[in-house]
Design goal:
The protein has 190 residues and is of the alpha+beta class. The chain has three helices and ten strands. It folds into two domains: 42 residues, no CATH class; 132 residues, Nucleoside Triphosphate Pyrophosphohydrolase. The longest helix is centred in the middle third of the chain and has 13 residues. The chain starts with a strand and ends in a 12-residue tail after the last helix. The model has no long low-confidence stretch (mean pLDDT 93).
């Protein structure tokens, strides 16, 4: 399928601390048909997340209350890029701020669109190894519990549905694959 498009106008409807809501009017030409459409687009400057893997085969997971879903959930450390910051620098900063560790080895596991149906956010997930102590620096509104979990148990929590956060699912799955794992027990995706 060949799609051509042209943005006719852009209006900023809302500008918040983390996101901006834009209303774009576009002209699409797809399969020989032309149509004008309006899209509401959430603009996000991007984020990075970290699978922090320790030498004893444990992984750092955080439990954090998330108001939009009104639950405390399991996550890997993550955060939004600061203006001008690279994904890797964001991952390094978030790892230390949220877990109190720094890493000697880094490997990018994934780069993906989080919700491309309405949002332009790109996220990178990094594997951090060779961990050493650093210093936590929580944001004022963060209430985080850091828990070291055996990697195999984290994968089980993913399969059983205890872990439902998308970046954490992607990060743990990609780390599992990177380490030479096949399908987790119970057949995720099957």
């Amino acid at each position: 399928m060949t799609v051509r498009w042209e943005r006719l106008s852009r209006e900023t409807v809302f500008e918040g601390r983390v996101v901006e809501l834009r209303r774009d009017r576009i002209r699409l030409v797809a399969d020989g048909r032309e149509k004008e459409s309006v899209y509401d687009v959430v603009h996000h400057r991007g984020a990075a997340a970290v699978v922090a893997l320790f030498e004893d085969d444990t992984v750092a997971l955080i439990r954090q209350f998330r108001y939009p879903v009104e639950e405390t959930i399991w996550e890997i450390p993550a955060g939004t890029l600061s203006p001008g910051e690279t994904f890797r620098a964001c991952a390094e900063r978030e790892l230390e701020e949220e877990t109190g560790h720094r890493a000697g080895r880094w490997h990018r596991l994934a780069r993906f669109f989080t919700t491309p149906g309405f949002c332009d956010e790109i996220m990178e997930i990094w594997l951090a190894e060779g961990l050493e102590d650093g210093e936590t620096r929580y944001d004022e509104d963060e209430h985080i519990e850091v828990v070291r979990v055996p990697f195999s148990r984290a994968v089980e929590r993913m399969v059983t549905g205890e872990i439902r956060d998308a970046k954490t699912l992607v990060g743990l799955w990609m780390a599992h694959h990177h380490r030479g794992g096949g399908r987790p027990a119970s057949g995720v995706g099957g």
